């Protein structure tokens, strides 16, 4: 969903994968309503401190996934998300887009068809489909929000407006008709 991608695209914006990319997080989380996803856990009875601790541990686990020098991990690769899997999640090559979403476990990607294995003939190219050329944090944090606003303002129908805001990321292509 483009509205959520606007915040998360900051994490995918570095043109190089390294440990610093692990904590390159969007600062517009509240605008994209990120916390709403975790509210059901609290409504189900989990203590907010437990939900917060689980999110913190998840973030800690995902730190090492951004280490491009890590080797393959053998049988663990069937169950856990590993650096080899996560490298492809960060790749902007068409062959690797929308793959390996798992934060800790990779089994769901395998079950639902979003799992990709690195191909020897296609090394991952990191960054966004349209690479960022700026190091300005405001530009990096707002570029997708600005694109959404531009496309929303140029929408010619309600359906197009909804798709420009809630549809899939555009990779620079607006849906105007």
Shape: globular
Mean pLDDT score, rounded?
Answer: 90
| Category by helix and strand content | mainly alpha
Approximately what portion of the residues adopt beta-strand conformation? under 5%
Helix content: 40-55%
Number of helices: 8
Sheet having the most strands: none
End-to-end span in angstroms?
A: 19 Å
Oligomeric organization of the protein chains = single chain
Low-confidence stretches: 172-177
Tally of DSSP β-strands: 0
Count up the domains: 1
From the alpha-carbon coordinates, what is the Rg to the nearest angstrom? 17 Å
H/E series, N to C? HHHHHHHH
Walk me through the structure.
With 177 residues, the chain is an all-alpha fold. The protein has one domain (2-166). It has helices at 2-12, 19-22, 39-43, 48-63, 83-89, 107-112, 137-153, 158-166. The model is unreliable at 172-177 (pLDDT under 50).
Question: Summed up, what is this model?
Answer:
By secondary structure, this protein is mostly helical. Helix content is 42%, strand content 0%. It has one domain.
Keywords:
8 helices, 177 residues, 42% helix, mainly alpha, disordered C terminus
Write the layout of secondary structure elements.
Elements: H1 2-12, H2 19-22, H3 39-43, H4 48-63, H5 83-89, H6 107-112, H7 137-153, H8 158-166
Helix pairs in contact: 1-7, 7-8
């Amino acid at each position: 969903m483009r509205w959520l991608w606007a915040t998360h695209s900051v994490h995918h914006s570095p043109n190089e994968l390294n440990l610093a990319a692990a904590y390159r997080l969007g600062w517009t989380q509240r605008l994209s309503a990120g916390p709403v996803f975790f509210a059901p856990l609290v409504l189900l009875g989990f203590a907010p401190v437990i939900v917060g601790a689980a999110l913190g541990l998840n973030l800690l686990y995902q730190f090492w996934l951004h280490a491009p020098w890590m080797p393959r991990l053998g049988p663990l690769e069937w169950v856990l998300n590993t650096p080899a899997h996560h490298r492809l999640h960060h790749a902007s090559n068409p062959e690797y887009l929308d793959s390996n979403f798992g934060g800790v476990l990779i089994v769901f990607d395998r079950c639902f068809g979003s799992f990709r294995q690195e191909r020897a003939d296609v090394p991952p190219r990191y960054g966004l489909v349209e690479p960022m050329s700026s190091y300005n944090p405001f530009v990096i944090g707002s570029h997708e929000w600005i694109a959404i606003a531009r496309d929303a303002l140029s929408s010619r129908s309600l359906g197009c407006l909804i798709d420009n805001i809630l549809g899939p990321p555009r990779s620079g292509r607006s849906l105007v008709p």
